[in-house]
Amino acid sequence: MRLPVIVGLDTLGGDAGRAGDLASRLCSRVSGFKIGLPNLLSCGGIGEAVREACPDSLIVADLKLADIGNTMRLAASRVVGWSDAVIAHAFPGVEGGLDELKAYLDSEGRKLLLVAAMSNPGASRIADKVLEEVVGVIGEVDPWGVVAPATRPSIIRLIRGRFPGKPILSPGVGAQGAEPGSAVNAGASYEIIGRLIVDSEEPLRVVEGLAPAYKAVMPGGSRF
Amino acid sequence: MRLPVIVGLDTLGGDAGRAGDLASRLCSRVSGFKIGLPNLLSCGGIGEAVREACPDSLIVADLKLADIGNTMRLAASRVVGWSDAVIAHAFPGVEGGLDELKAYLDSEGRKLLLVAAMSNPGASRIADKVLEEVVGVIGEVDPWGVVAPATRPSIIRLIRGRFPGKPILSPGVGAQGAEPGSAVNAGASYEIIGRLIVDSEEPLRVVEGLAPAYKAVMPGGSRF
Questions:
Q1: ipTM associated with this complex
Q2: Average pLDDT, stretch A57-86?
Q3: pLDDT at residue A53, as a whole number
Q4: Considering the entire predicted model, what is its pTM?
Q5: Lowest-confidence pick of A7-21, B30-44, B58-72, B95-109
Q6: Element housing B140 (H / E)
Q7: Which amino acids of B are annotated catalytic?
Q8: How far does Cα B88 stand from its chain's mean position?
Q9: Which of A74, A43, A46, A42 is nearest to A60 (CA)?
Q10: How many helices and strands in chain A, by DSSP H and E?
Protein backbone atom coordinates (compact mmCIF):
# COMPACT_ATOMS: atom_id res chain seq x y z
CA MET A 1 0.00 0.00 0.00
CA ARG A 2 1.20 3.46 -0.84
CA LEU A 3 1.38 5.96 2.00
CA PRO A 4 -0.31 9.35 1.53
CA VAL A 5 3.15 10.88 1.28
CA ILE A 6 4.59 12.98 -1.53
CA VAL A 7 8.35 13.18 -1.31
CA GLY A 8 9.70 16.71 -1.73
CA LEU A 9 12.97 16.52 -3.63
CA ASP A 10 14.01 20.09 -2.87
CA THR A 11 17.43 19.50 -1.38
CA LEU A 12 19.04 17.31 -4.02
CA GLY A 13 20.99 20.09 -5.71
CA GLY A 14 19.60 19.18 -9.11
CA ASP A 15 21.29 15.77 -9.08
CA ALA A 16 19.15 13.78 -11.52
CA GLY A 17 21.01 10.53 -10.94
CA ARG A 18 20.49 10.67 -7.19
CA ALA A 19 16.85 11.76 -7.62
CA GLY A 20 16.07 8.91 -10.04
CA ASP A 21 17.77 6.40 -7.76
CA LEU A 22 15.95 7.66 -4.68
CA ALA A 23 12.59 7.74 -6.49
CA SER A 24 12.97 4.21 -7.85
CA ARG A 25 13.52 2.91 -4.32
CA LEU A 26 10.49 4.77 -2.93
CA CYS A 27 7.83 4.82 -5.64
CA SER A 28 6.05 1.63 -4.60
CA ARG A 29 5.73 3.00 -1.03
CA VAL A 30 4.72 6.65 -1.52
CA SER A 31 2.06 8.44 -3.57
CA GLY A 32 4.30 10.73 -5.53
CA PHE A 33 7.10 13.24 -5.76
CA LYS A 34 7.32 17.00 -5.71
CA ILE A 35 10.15 18.67 -7.59
CA GLY A 36 10.89 22.25 -6.58
CA LEU A 37 12.12 25.28 -8.43
CA PRO A 38 15.73 25.08 -7.16
CA ASN A 39 16.13 21.64 -8.71
CA LEU A 40 14.48 22.69 -11.96
CA LEU A 41 16.73 25.76 -12.25
CA SER A 42 19.72 23.44 -11.89
CA CYS A 43 18.85 22.11 -15.33
CA GLY A 44 20.00 18.57 -14.62
CA GLY A 45 16.98 16.77 -16.05
CA ILE A 46 15.66 15.81 -12.62
CA GLY A 47 11.98 15.83 -13.66
CA GLU A 48 12.61 13.47 -16.54
CA ALA A 49 14.71 11.18 -14.31
CA VAL A 50 11.99 10.87 -11.68
CA ARG A 51 9.32 10.27 -14.34
CA GLU A 52 11.44 7.47 -15.86
CA ALA A 53 12.00 5.91 -12.42
CA CYS A 54 8.30 6.09 -11.43
CA PRO A 55 6.06 6.08 -14.53
CA ASP A 56 2.76 5.88 -12.61
CA SER A 57 3.52 8.13 -9.63
CA LEU A 58 1.97 11.57 -9.17
CA ILE A 59 4.76 14.00 -10.06
CA VAL A 60 4.24 17.62 -9.06
CA ALA A 61 6.23 20.53 -10.48
CA ASP A 62 6.42 22.95 -7.58
CA LEU A 63 6.94 26.18 -9.47
CA LYS A 64 4.88 28.27 -6.99
CA LEU A 65 3.88 30.38 -10.00
CA ALA A 66 2.74 33.93 -9.21
CA ASP A 67 2.81 36.04 -12.35
CA ILE A 68 0.64 37.26 -15.22
CA GLY A 69 -1.16 34.55 -17.17
CA ASN A 70 1.09 34.64 -20.21
CA THR A 71 4.25 34.10 -18.13
CA MET A 72 2.71 31.34 -15.97
CA ARG A 73 1.55 29.51 -19.11
CA LEU A 74 5.02 29.72 -20.67
CA ALA A 75 6.67 28.51 -17.45
CA ALA A 76 4.23 25.58 -17.15
CA SER A 77 4.91 24.60 -20.75
CA ARG A 78 8.51 23.80 -19.73
CA VAL A 79 7.44 21.09 -17.27
CA VAL A 80 4.35 19.41 -18.78
CA GLY A 81 6.58 16.87 -20.51
CA TRP A 82 7.22 14.98 -17.26
CA SER A 83 4.83 16.40 -14.62
CA ASP A 84 1.20 15.57 -13.76
CA ALA A 85 0.50 18.73 -11.81
CA VAL A 86 1.81 22.29 -11.44
CA ILE A 87 1.64 24.42 -8.27
CA ALA A 88 0.65 28.09 -8.54
CA HIS A 89 -0.34 30.73 -6.00
CA ALA A 90 -3.92 32.03 -5.78
CA PHE A 91 -2.91 35.66 -5.33
CA PRO A 92 -2.44 36.50 -9.06
CA GLY A 93 -6.25 36.23 -9.20
CA VAL A 94 -8.33 35.02 -12.10
CA GLU A 95 -8.46 37.58 -14.92
CA GLY A 96 -5.28 37.73 -16.96
CA GLY A 97 -3.74 35.35 -14.44
CA LEU A 98 -4.96 31.93 -13.34
CA ASP A 99 -7.65 31.77 -16.05
CA GLU A 100 -4.93 31.47 -18.68
CA LEU A 101 -2.86 28.98 -16.68
CA LYS A 102 -5.88 26.75 -15.96
CA ALA A 103 -6.97 26.75 -19.63
CA TYR A 104 -3.46 25.83 -20.71
CA LEU A 105 -3.06 22.98 -18.20
CA ASP A 106 -6.54 21.66 -19.08
CA SER A 107 -5.55 21.62 -22.75
CA GLU A 108 -2.45 19.59 -21.87
CA GLY A 109 -4.34 17.20 -19.60
CA ARG A 110 -2.37 18.38 -16.58
CA LYS A 111 -3.54 19.25 -13.07
CA LEU A 112 -3.44 22.64 -11.36
CA LEU A 113 -2.74 22.97 -7.63
CA LEU A 114 -3.35 26.32 -5.92
CA VAL A 115 -1.67 27.41 -2.69
CA ALA A 116 -4.17 28.39 0.00
CA ALA A 117 -1.52 29.46 2.50
CA MET A 118 2.20 29.06 3.07
CA SER A 119 3.92 27.30 5.96
CA ASN A 120 6.54 29.80 7.17
CA PRO A 121 5.73 31.98 10.21
CA GLY A 122 5.96 35.34 8.39
CA ALA A 123 3.45 34.37 5.69
CA SER A 124 0.42 34.72 7.95
CA ARG A 125 0.96 38.49 8.21
CA ILE A 126 -0.42 39.00 4.70
CA ALA A 127 -2.14 35.72 3.86
CA ASP A 128 -4.47 35.63 6.88
CA LYS A 129 -6.02 38.94 5.85
CA VAL A 130 -7.04 37.63 2.44
CA LEU A 131 -7.88 34.00 3.19
CA GLU A 132 -11.52 34.51 2.17
CA GLU A 133 -10.44 36.08 -1.14
CA VAL A 134 -7.99 33.23 -1.71
CA VAL A 135 -10.78 30.71 -1.08
CA GLY A 136 -12.91 32.69 -3.56
CA VAL A 137 -10.22 32.49 -6.23
CA ILE A 138 -9.86 28.73 -5.62
CA GLY A 139 -13.62 28.30 -5.99
CA GLU A 140 -13.69 30.27 -9.23
CA VAL A 141 -10.62 28.69 -10.86
CA ASP A 142 -11.65 25.20 -9.73
CA PRO A 143 -8.17 23.62 -9.66
CA TRP A 144 -7.65 19.89 -9.25
CA GLY A 145 -6.28 20.40 -5.74
CA VAL A 146 -5.12 22.78 -3.05
CA VAL A 147 -1.87 23.22 -1.10
CA ALA A 148 -2.37 24.03 2.60
CA PRO A 149 0.30 23.96 5.32
CA ALA A 150 0.59 21.15 7.85
CA THR A 151 1.88 23.77 10.29
CA ARG A 152 -1.60 25.36 10.27
CA PRO A 153 -4.23 22.61 10.62
CA SER A 154 -7.05 25.17 11.00
CA ILE A 155 -6.49 26.20 7.38
CA ILE A 156 -6.56 22.56 6.25
CA ARG A 157 -9.90 22.14 8.06
CA LEU A 158 -11.26 25.30 6.43
CA ILE A 159 -10.24 24.17 2.93
CA ARG A 160 -11.54 20.64 3.52
CA GLY A 161 -14.87 22.12 4.62
CA ARG A 162 -15.17 24.38 1.59
CA PHE A 163 -13.93 21.88 -0.98
CA PRO A 164 -14.89 18.40 0.25
CA GLY A 165 -13.85 16.62 -2.95
CA LYS A 166 -10.54 18.25 -3.72
CA PRO A 167 -7.17 16.68 -2.95
CA ILE A 168 -5.25 18.74 -0.38
CA LEU A 169 -1.44 18.54 -0.33
CA SER A 170 0.25 19.66 2.89
CA PRO A 171 3.88 20.74 3.13
CA GLY A 172 5.54 21.53 6.44
CA VAL A 173 5.83 17.99 7.85
CA GLY A 174 9.22 17.09 9.29
CA ALA A 175 11.89 19.78 9.10
CA GLN A 176 9.33 22.60 9.41
CA GLY A 177 7.83 21.09 12.54
CA ALA A 178 4.51 19.34 11.85
CA GLU A 179 4.21 15.70 12.93
CA PRO A 180 3.67 13.00 10.28
CA GLY A 181 -0.05 12.16 10.18
CA SER A 182 -1.15 15.48 11.63
CA ALA A 183 -2.15 17.09 8.32
CA VAL A 184 -4.03 13.97 7.13
CA ASN A 185 -5.77 13.92 10.48
CA ALA A 186 -6.90 17.53 9.85
CA GLY A 187 -8.29 16.61 6.42
CA ALA A 188 -5.33 16.65 4.02
CA SER A 189 -5.07 14.00 1.31
CA TYR A 190 -1.28 13.91 1.11
CA GLU A 191 1.59 15.14 3.25
CA ILE A 192 4.61 16.53 1.46
CA ILE A 193 7.77 15.42 3.29
CA GLY A 194 11.16 16.53 2.05
CA ARG A 195 14.26 16.82 4.18
CA LEU A 196 13.17 14.19 6.73
CA ILE A 197 13.29 11.57 3.95
CA VAL A 198 15.68 12.98 1.38
CA ASP A 199 18.45 14.01 3.76
CA SER A 200 18.34 10.65 5.56
CA GLU A 201 21.01 7.98 5.13
CA GLU A 202 18.21 5.41 4.86
CA PRO A 203 15.22 7.05 3.14
CA LEU A 204 13.32 3.78 2.62
CA ARG A 205 13.58 2.99 6.32
CA VAL A 206 12.31 6.49 7.19
CA VAL A 207 9.32 5.98 4.86
CA GLU A 208 8.55 2.58 6.36
CA GLY A 209 8.77 4.12 9.81
CA LEU A 210 6.04 6.60 8.84
CA ALA A 211 3.39 3.93 8.17
CA PRO A 212 2.04 3.68 11.75
CA ALA A 213 1.45 7.45 11.87
CA TYR A 214 -0.88 7.21 8.87
CA LYS A 215 -2.52 3.96 9.94
CA ALA A 216 -3.52 5.67 13.18
CA VAL A 217 -5.32 8.54 11.43
CA MET A 218 -6.61 6.66 8.36
CA PRO A 219 -8.29 3.51 9.68
CA GLY A 220 -10.38 3.28 6.51
CA GLY A 221 -7.50 3.84 4.11
CA SER A 222 -6.69 6.84 1.96
CA ARG A 223 -9.38 9.40 1.25
CA PHE A 224 -8.54 9.50 -2.49
CA MET B 1 22.60 57.88 -23.14
CA ARG B 2 20.88 54.82 -21.83
CA LEU B 3 17.10 54.93 -21.68
CA PRO B 4 15.39 53.98 -18.39
CA VAL B 5 14.24 50.78 -20.08
CA ILE B 6 14.84 47.21 -18.96
CA VAL B 7 14.18 44.76 -21.76
CA GLY B 8 12.07 41.79 -20.71
CA LEU B 9 13.31 38.72 -22.54
CA ASP B 10 10.29 36.58 -21.67
CA THR B 11 9.23 35.46 -25.14
CA LEU B 12 12.50 34.12 -26.54
CA GLY B 13 11.76 30.48 -25.83
CA GLY B 14 15.04 30.01 -24.02
CA ASP B 15 17.08 30.72 -27.16
CA ALA B 16 20.42 31.85 -25.69
CA GLY B 17 21.92 32.66 -29.08
CA ARG B 18 19.07 34.97 -30.01
CA ALA B 19 19.03 36.53 -26.54
CA GLY B 20 22.78 37.21 -26.58
CA ASP B 21 22.55 38.68 -30.08
CA LEU B 22 19.58 40.88 -29.18
CA ALA B 23 21.22 42.03 -25.94
CA SER B 24 24.52 42.93 -27.62
CA ARG B 25 22.66 45.16 -30.07
CA LEU B 26 20.70 46.92 -27.31
CA CYS B 27 22.94 47.15 -24.25
CA SER B 28 24.42 50.57 -25.05
CA ARG B 29 20.89 52.01 -25.40
CA VAL B 30 18.95 50.46 -22.49
CA SER B 31 19.57 50.16 -18.74
CA GLY B 32 19.32 46.41 -18.47
CA PHE B 33 17.61 43.12 -19.11
CA LYS B 34 15.08 41.01 -17.24
CA ILE B 35 15.13 37.27 -17.77
CA GLY B 36 11.97 35.45 -16.77
CA LEU B 37 11.26 32.04 -15.34
CA PRO B 38 10.09 30.48 -18.66
CA ASN B 39 13.45 31.18 -20.23
CA LEU B 40 15.37 29.95 -17.20
CA LEU B 41 13.37 26.70 -17.12
CA SER B 42 14.33 26.16 -20.75
CA CYS B 43 17.87 25.59 -19.51
CA GLY B 44 19.52 27.09 -22.58
CA GLY B 45 22.07 29.22 -20.74
CA ILE B 46 20.24 32.46 -21.56
CA GLY B 47 21.36 34.27 -18.39
CA GLU B 48 25.02 33.55 -19.05
CA ALA B 49 24.63 34.60 -22.72
CA VAL B 50 23.12 37.97 -21.82
CA ARG B 51 25.78 38.59 -19.16
CA GLU B 52 28.53 37.86 -21.69
CA ALA B 53 26.91 40.17 -24.24
CA CYS B 54 26.42 43.04 -21.76
CA PRO B 55 28.96 42.81 -18.90
CA ASP B 56 27.97 46.11 -17.26
CA SER B 57 24.18 46.07 -17.73
CA LEU B 58 21.74 45.50 -14.87
CA ILE B 59 20.55 41.92 -15.33
CA VAL B 60 17.49 40.90 -13.35
CA ALA B 61 16.47 37.28 -12.72
CA ASP B 62 12.68 37.47 -12.66
CA LEU B 63 11.94 34.40 -10.57
CA LYS B 64 8.91 35.99 -8.83
CA LEU B 65 9.88 33.91 -5.80
CA ALA B 66 7.08 33.19 -3.32
CA ASP B 67 8.05 30.32 -1.05
CA ILE B 68 9.62 29.55 2.31
CA GLY B 69 13.03 31.09 2.92
CA ASN B 70 15.02 27.91 2.44
CA THR B 71 13.52 27.28 -1.01
CA MET B 72 13.86 30.89 -2.16
CA ARG B 73 17.51 30.91 -1.09
CA LEU B 74 18.23 27.71 -3.01
CA ALA B 75 16.44 29.02 -6.12
CA ALA B 76 18.35 32.32 -5.98
CA SER B 77 21.64 30.43 -5.65
CA ARG B 78 21.05 29.06 -9.18
CA VAL B 79 21.08 32.52 -10.79
CA VAL B 80 23.59 34.61 -8.79
CA GLY B 81 26.34 33.55 -11.18
CA TRP B 82 25.07 35.90 -13.89
CA SER B 83 22.38 38.13 -12.35
CA ASP B 84 22.65 41.41 -10.40
CA ALA B 85 19.17 41.25 -8.91
CA VAL B 86 16.44 38.73 -8.09
CA ILE B 87 12.70 39.44 -8.00
CA ALA B 88 10.58 38.00 -5.18
CA HIS B 89 7.05 38.64 -3.95
CA ALA B 90 6.34 40.38 -0.64
CA PHE B 91 3.61 37.78 0.16
CA PRO B 92 5.88 35.25 1.93
CA GLY B 93 6.43 37.86 4.64
CA VAL B 94 9.60 38.28 6.67
CA GLU B 95 10.05 35.47 9.23
CA GLY B 96 11.21 32.20 7.66
CA GLY B 97 10.72 33.84 4.28
CA LEU B 98 12.22 37.05 2.93
CA ASP B 99 14.60 37.41 5.88
CA GLU B 100 16.53 34.36 4.68
CA LEU B 101 16.46 35.41 1.02
CA LYS B 102 17.67 38.95 1.80
CA ALA B 103 20.51 37.68 4.00
CA TYR B 104 21.61 35.27 1.27
CA LEU B 105 21.54 37.89 -1.52
CA ASP B 106 23.39 40.37 0.72
CA SER B 107 26.07 37.76 1.34
CA GLU B 108 26.45 37.27 -2.42
CA GLY B 109 26.49 41.01 -3.15
CA ARG B 110 23.26 40.74 -5.16
CA LYS B 111 20.17 42.95 -5.10
CA LEU B 112 16.65 42.01 -3.99
CA LEU B 113 13.57 43.42 -5.74
CA LEU B 114 10.17 42.98 -4.10
CA VAL B 115 6.87 43.04 -5.99
CA ALA B 116 4.44 45.63 -4.59
CA ALA B 117 1.61 44.69 -6.95
CA MET B 118 1.08 42.77 -10.18
CA SER B 119 -0.10 44.16 -13.52
CA ASN B 120 -2.87 41.75 -14.57
CA PRO B 121 -6.51 42.80 -13.91
CA GLY B 122 -7.35 39.89 -11.59
CA ALA B 123 -4.46 40.57 -9.22
CA SER B 124 -6.10 43.59 -7.61
CA ARG B 125 -8.80 41.38 -6.05
CA ILE B 126 -6.37 40.12 -3.43
CA ALA B 127 -3.44 42.53 -3.61
CA ASP B 128 -5.43 45.72 -3.05
CA LYS B 129 -6.68 44.44 0.29
CA VAL B 130 -3.16 43.97 1.63
CA LEU B 131 -1.26 46.82 0.02
CA GLU B 132 -0.49 48.36 3.43
CA GLU B 133 0.85 45.03 4.71
CA VAL B 134 2.92 44.63 1.53
CA VAL B 135 4.36 48.12 2.03
CA GLY B 136 5.12 47.13 5.63
CA VAL B 137 7.02 44.03 4.51
CA ILE B 138 8.98 46.10 1.97
CA GLY B 139 9.89 48.59 4.70
CA GLU B 140 11.03 45.84 7.04
CA VAL B 141 13.00 43.78 4.50
CA ASP B 142 14.54 46.91 2.94
CA PRO B 143 15.19 45.51 -0.53
CA TRP B 144 17.28 47.37 -3.11
CA GLY B 145 14.18 48.11 -5.19
CA VAL B 146 10.48 47.56 -5.79
CA VAL B 147 8.42 46.26 -8.72
CA ALA B 148 5.17 48.16 -9.31
CA PRO B 149 2.92 47.93 -12.38
CA ALA B 150 2.84 50.61 -15.07
CA THR B 151 -0.83 49.73 -15.53
CA ARG B 152 -1.53 51.13 -12.05
CA PRO B 153 0.27 54.50 -11.70
CA SER B 154 -1.43 55.21 -8.34
CA ILE B 155 0.55 52.32 -6.84
CA ILE B 156 3.79 53.65 -8.32
CA ARG B 157 3.04 57.04 -6.72
CA LEU B 158 2.31 55.38 -3.38
CA ILE B 159 5.58 53.41 -3.42
CA ARG B 160 7.58 56.46 -4.56
CA GLY B 161 6.09 58.45 -1.70
CA ARG B 162 6.92 55.78 0.89
CA PHE B 163 10.36 54.89 -0.44
CA PRO B 164 11.81 58.03 -2.05
CA GLY B 165 15.27 56.58 -2.58
CA LYS B 166 14.46 53.11 -3.90
CA PRO B 167 14.60 52.17 -7.58
CA ILE B 168 11.14 51.23 -8.87
CA LEU B 169 10.86 48.87 -11.86
CA SER B 170 7.55 48.94 -13.75
CA PRO B 171 6.33 46.12 -15.99
CA GLY B 172 3.15 46.41 -18.06
CA VAL B 173 4.39 48.85 -20.71
CA GLY B 174 3.57 47.90 -24.28
CA ALA B 175 1.70 44.63 -24.78
CA GLN B 176 -0.11 45.00 -21.44
CA GLY B 177 -1.36 48.47 -22.30
CA ALA B 178 0.63 51.17 -20.50
CA GLU B 179 2.24 53.89 -22.65
CA PRO B 180 6.04 54.22 -22.69
CA GLY B 181 7.02 57.05 -20.35
CA SER B 182 3.87 56.81 -18.25
CA ALA B 183 5.39 54.81 -15.37
CA VAL B 184 8.51 57.02 -15.21
CA ASN B 185 6.20 60.00 -15.18
CA ALA B 186 4.43 58.50 -12.15
CA GLY B 187 7.72 58.01 -10.30
CA ALA B 188 9.21 54.77 -11.61
CA SER B 189 12.94 54.52 -12.21
CA TYR B 190 12.80 51.99 -15.04
CA GLU B 191 10.11 50.62 -17.34
CA ILE B 192 10.28 46.94 -18.19
CA ILE B 193 9.34 46.47 -21.84
CA GLY B 194 9.19 42.99 -23.31
CA ARG B 195 7.12 41.97 -26.30
CA LEU B 196 7.04 45.46 -27.87
CA ILE B 197 10.82 45.26 -28.31
CA VAL B 198 11.60 41.54 -28.38
CA ASP B 199 8.87 40.50 -30.81
CA SER B 200 9.72 43.31 -33.23
CA GLU B 201 11.55 42.73 -36.51
CA GLU B 202 13.69 45.75 -35.69
CA PRO B 203 14.19 45.92 -31.91
CA LEU B 204 16.91 48.61 -32.06
CA ARG B 205 14.63 50.88 -34.08
CA VAL B 206 11.80 50.33 -31.54
CA VAL B 207 14.16 51.29 -28.71
CA GLU B 208 15.35 54.39 -30.55
CA GLY B 209 11.73 55.32 -31.17
CA LEU B 210 11.09 55.27 -27.41
CA ALA B 211 13.60 58.03 -26.62
CA PRO B 212 11.21 60.99 -27.08
CA ALA B 213 8.71 59.46 -24.64
CA TYR B 214 11.34 59.47 -21.89
CA LYS B 215 12.83 62.84 -22.82
CA ALA B 216 9.38 64.37 -22.35
CA VAL B 217 8.98 63.07 -18.79
CA MET B 218 12.64 63.22 -17.69
CA PRO B 219 13.89 66.68 -18.58
CA GLY B 220 16.59 66.46 -15.93
CA GLY B 221 17.78 62.98 -16.89
CA SER B 222 17.36 59.67 -15.09
CA ARG B 223 16.48 59.66 -11.40
CA PHE B 224 19.09 57.05 -10.57
A1: 0.93
A2: 97
A3: 97
A4: 0.95
A5: A7-21
A6: helix B131-141
A7: 64
A8: 10
A9: A46
A10: 11, 8
Q: How far A42 CA sits from the closest chain B CA (Å)?
A: 6
Q: CA-to-CA distance for A174 and A5, rounded, in angstroms? A: 12
Neighboring chain A residues of B126 at a CB cutoff of 8 Å: 90-91, 93, 130, 133-134, 137
> Closest Cα to residue B50, out of B29, B20, B80?
B20
Q: How confident is the model at residue A224 (pLDDT cuts 50, 70, 90)?
A: very low
Question: Across the interface, do A43 and B38 touch by the CB < 8 Å criterion?
Answer: no
Mutate to test the interface with B, among A12, A15, A74, A102 (most CBs of B within 10 A): A74
Q: Do B41 and A79 touch (CB under 8 A)?
A: yes
Q: A199 contacts in B (CB within 8 Å)?
A: none
- Nearest-CB residue to A120 (from B40, B89, B92): B92
C-beta separation of B9 from B39 below 8 A: yes
| CA B102 to each of CA B94, B105, B121, B139: distance values in angstroms, whole numbers, following the listed order | 9, 5, 29, 13
- Tell me the torsion sign for CA atoms B194, B200, B203, B208: negative
Q: Distances from the Cα of B113 to the Cαs of A33, A89, B9, B88, in angstroms?
A: 31, 19, 17, 6
Closest by Cβ to B123, choosing from A14, A37, A92:
A92
